[in-house]
Amino acid sequence: MSHQVKRVQNQINIYSVNMPKEATTGAKTESRKMAEQIYDMIMGAIEQDLLLGNIPGLDAKYAHENSEEHKARMKRYKEAYKKFDAELAGFMGRIKNETRMSKRSSLRKKEQKARRAEEQELENLEAAFQ
């Protein structure tokens, strides 16, 4: 297994959604698929060679490169992973913020609905005593 493949697998494992041990295989598979899709989405804009589907063929694709070309490519990949890490951090931050805002909005709506129900109940009680 090439260094690039190991690096990608490590990236996916780091950023996969952590599931409890009792999680089903289906949920783990879905989380892994999501992590792979996110990886490819971000990496696709950075370095096409490092897309998950392209990595297994890199050794064959670059079999005839000389050591200088190989060194330059490895440097390019290293920079791509740095950029990927920064992009992923930003992406996850945006997801976290969106999730937090959705949660707040949902709680606010639930609170407003409960308040309206209480107000209606109080109005009904007042009407019953008149």
Annotation keywords:
single chain; 130 residues; mainly alpha; 77% helix; rod-shaped
Please give a structural write-up.
- With 130 residues, this protein is mainly α.
- It has one domain (3-129).
- Helices cover 77% and strands 0% of the residues.
- α1 (3-15) crosses α2 and α2 (25-44) packs across α4 (67-129).
- The longest helix has 63 residues, at 67-129.
- It starts with a helix and ends with a helix.
- 5% of the residues are buried.
- The mean pLDDT is 85.
pLDDT average, as an integer?
A: 85
Q: What share of the residues lie within helices?
A: over 70%
> How much of the residues is beta strand, in percent?
under 5%
- Compressed to H and E, one letter per element, the order equals HHHH
Q: What is the tally of beta strands?
A: 0
Structural class: mainly alpha
- Global morphology: rod-shaped
Tell me about the largest β-sheet: none
Q: Please indicate the count of domains.
A: 1
Measured between the Cα atoms of the first and last residue, the distance is 82 Å
By DSSP (H or I, 4+ residues per run), the number of helices equals 4
Low-confidence stretches: none
Rg (C-alpha, Å):
25 Å
